[in-house]
What does this fold into?
Amino acid sequence: MQTQSLSTSTGDILHAAHLLRAGELVAFPTETVYGLGAMVFNESAVRAIFTAKGRPSDNPLIVHCADRTDVERVAINIPPLFDALFERFCPGPLTMLLERHIAVPDAVTAGLNTVAVRFPAHPVAETLIRTAGEPLVAPSANRSGRPSPTQAQHVMNDLAGRIAAVIDGGSCEVGIESTVLNILTNPPVILRPGSITKEMLEDVVGYEVVHGSYAIKTSNDGISEVSFPTLAPGMKYRHYAPEARIILVDSMAEALQTARGIEGQQGNLVWILSNSVKKPEHDIFLLSEQTLYAMFRNADAQNVGTLILVCDPHVRNNEGLMNRIQKAASRK
Ligand code: TXA
Ligand code: MG
It folds into this structure.
């Protein structure tokens, strides 16, 4: 299969919608990262997403809607809290869990009785969903285990030959995936942190919202195992990690000192990423939500041996960014 590169013209979006309606997979830009779209009610198209990405089938997909009325097609018993949060944050980078409608294929929810719903704040995504005529399931458009794509080229690098088309809408504005919130529990639980923060959510909810966490349980024979009762299923998989070794430091001074120590060792290319970089120079680049995943991909392409990330207070206070950094750093 030859993957078509499409523009954001009306004609190309119409063509993309035709492909989707024919059961094909099309990657498209959202404000967070590129998504790999399929028609939500076409079960074989939904299954093809898992094959194209190499995604474990127990990891459910987010349903992307254009209008509030779309939600009634995929969810039931929608609580008032949904509408309160919808009013404040949608369209935008917030995904909410709802009770699943019987019409939603098992492949979408991985058999769960909940369905995750979001409204992407990107004109191309909104137009594509409306033109396709039904909500689109869309995981991040990367091969499983690779960083989420924030440019069309990243999608091509991972999925060329495996999907019908990619719509090139330039770089994604937010750069990390949406906040995933379970609003069916009391208190609501953040299953995946993102740019819509706990504080922002609490401002609407009116009471405490909690972060999901890992729980260690010890079985009878004394062996500890990790379970993930309050995290999104996808959070247990290896994600977001470049080939390079990642070292976290507190300041640029510490980064420079660490780099000097490593650069003496032969053939080990070292890059420093810092939030306070005004203009990137040789081997020192900007660390931000928008640039993190692209930097990981660039580092792989350049065979960088070590990435030193300056986690100053500004970075540490960004819960979505810090979550992705820690996942990348803890992989090896
Ligand atoms: O920003 C985003 O959310 C991007 C763009 C493309 O919209 N999409 C995205 O999808 O990140 P994906 O498939 O890469 O991640 C979806 C996450 C996974 O961690 C998955 O386990 C979780 O959402 N999820 C989906 N449905 C769920 C459900 N019913 N219950 C709990 N977690 C769910
Ligand atoms: Mg993903």
Q: What stands out?
A: DSSP finds eleven helices and 18 strands in the chain. The pocket of threonylcarbamoyladenylate (ligand 1) is lined by residues 30, 32-33, 35, 59-62, 93, 95, 97, 109, 112, 114-116, 118, 120, 138-140, 177-178, 180, 191-192, 232-235 (CB under 6 Å). The CA atoms of residues 74 and 101 lie 5 Å apart.
